Amino acid sequence: MLHILIYFIFFRDQILEMFDHAYNSYMDYAYPADELMPLSCRGRVRGLEPNRGDIDDSLGKFSLTLIDTLDTLVLLNKLDEFEEAVKKTVRDVRFDNDIVVSVFETNIRVLGYMRMIPHCTMILEFAALSRLSGDPIFEENARKAMDVLWEKRQRGSDLVGTVINIHNGDWVRRDSGVGAGIDSYYEYLMKAYILLGDKVYLNRFNTHYSAIMKYISQPPLLLNVHMHNPTVNVRSWMDSLLAFFPGLQVLRGDLKPAIETHEMLYQVTKQHNFLPEAFTTEFRVHWGQHPLRPEFAESTYFLYKATGDPYYLKVGQSIVEKLNTHARVPCGFAAVQDVRTGTHEDRMDSFFLAEMFKYLYLLFSEKSQLPINIDDYIFTTEAHLLPVSLSTTQPPCHTNNTEPQAHEDDLFSYSCPSAQTLFPNNPTFAKTIRDSYKYLTGVGRAQQASSDSQKGVYKLKLVAEVSHTPEHEEVVPLIVQLISPPFLGQTVFTAGPAKFGTDLTKQQHGVSSIMKSVPYTACGPIENAVELQGHIALALRGDCMFAAKARRLQEAGATGVIFIDHREGSSSADTPLFQMVGDGEPTDDITVPLAFLFSKEGATLTAALEEHHNVDVLLLPKEKQLGKEKPEKLNIKFRLAKEGELAEGETESTTIQLVLEQSETDTETNNEAASLMRENQETCSSLQKDPESSP
Ligand code: DMJ
After folding, report:
1. Residue 298 catalytic?
2. Is residue 188 within 6 Å of ligand 1 at its C-beta?
3. To pair with 215 at 20 to 30 A between CA atoms, which of 3, 177, 300, 331?
4. Are the beta carbons of 241 and 414 closer than 8 angstroms?
5. Over the stretch 16-62, which tens digit does the pLDDT of each residue have?
């Protein structure tokens, strides 16, 4: 008992020290700006830094990080700092800024705007506002938004999509999951019942939850499916936001799948230090960014409280250590730009202070050590604490009798959380479930094999397997190579691929000249379809989906599309490439080649077009770049095999990976383009000799 207390004190102190480092860095270098830029040691002021697109919509020039951190100060018992922060908020923060902000982000992080359009993902905050202020308007409007989403569920599957058009109510993305886009909808249905005591929300949650467990949950994975055709997975990767879901399952009393998914996530963090923003079903990186998200810590906290299994303290310990080792910088903690390289990004989002430190501190605290009775509160999606006493502040909302009842065979109906199914501190229960997922990602297998050998059970052999192809899904970089004079193949931009359209790794595409689409976003009818015929269209990212733009431009006669990022200052030199995905609908009809350029490369390309009027380009995989010798990669995989065990499809895999490079001239150069480049070079040199001759 004594040693666990000392262990708790040690980690609490460490977490407090880390919090001080992050919070003081914000206050010293950034306040009153919205966020800290921990690499530049200054504040991020919207408009003064390069535009990062949607993520900047959280920044309302209202000292976002200060406000988002207020109740963390209370929970961490920093009451003097809290008082000081409240004074600063009252004295300095203004909401009358002429600036467009994200409704969702402002609601969950600030809740300052009274005239926002109600959003599904807002019921907790708006209901709290109504019950505290006595004015029902906020709760009523937020409830209407929840009702619309419920009405819009797919009646066959009981699933909802991830993006809805708020003007006409049509689903924009019909893929259905529990992560990005929809996470807080499910969370708020459950928590609205807990906070407001209204069973309508519980019925709805239970109906969706049954559907999620039927179609999306494929333990330990949670995979997006099509809402109309839910037996079909729409992608082979998961996003990191779904890491909150095991925590919600704990509240639901459904511990087994929570333990399974959490264990899977833990193994991904063992492999990559943090959860990458997206990772494949084989636990490889799909998108390597990690903006210090708290969801994994959140689920770890809930699982520890539900099971009492000290295993989850170890998980928390690893989160603390990894943050200190891989994210701590002199001016705070920096997001990781790519978990594969460990490079940092100049951002520390406010949720890091609002959520991460709360969940970590709570994990290592006994209830009696906290300044408040934590059981009297419910966490919002941003980990802000709302008192459950609000449910009695006002009678529950009217019950809608036409609501379907939860499935009768559902053990958990009308339980929230279920006392029968929340497991009383029984660590062995969790361990039994985890054990079957222990070496899911391969991490830890080698140690297992060698400990077996030490017992003299197996003889070990080192086996090498050689292949030419990568063993996992990767973002295959493309290039946009400028072929016509004066570029002559010398100007090359790295571009991102798409999951749909021509597969340029398998099918070559000839040289085409480029032309800007009108409108540039290609989100409305194409006005210059006649001119676009036979050209590769340039289209600005944003306003509608990549697939919608591609379809429209293909119909208009474009032979390909180069999308250009709308976020100012982005570049392939410092932003990891990603793969454009479809809109959840079949994309087989899109057959033209597609490539994505970050804005710096896009600006150079459009400037070239303005200057030279005719710019011919070639789209091809980077490894096939014209005029480059290509090192061929051989993947040689060594593994330890038990004697006599050489069966194909062996699952005990990689312990060591070597890459041998074999220099070999690329024999697959594009002849059409190569001869065009030669021709152009000849024309160009004759032009230089005789400047008067016409081309
Ligand atoms: C937070 O702002 C909230 O948790 C939100 O619901 C989604 N995730 C971010 C942090 O990852």
Report:
1. no
2. no
3. 300
4. no
5. 999 999 999 999 999 999 999 999 999 999 999 999 998 999 999 99
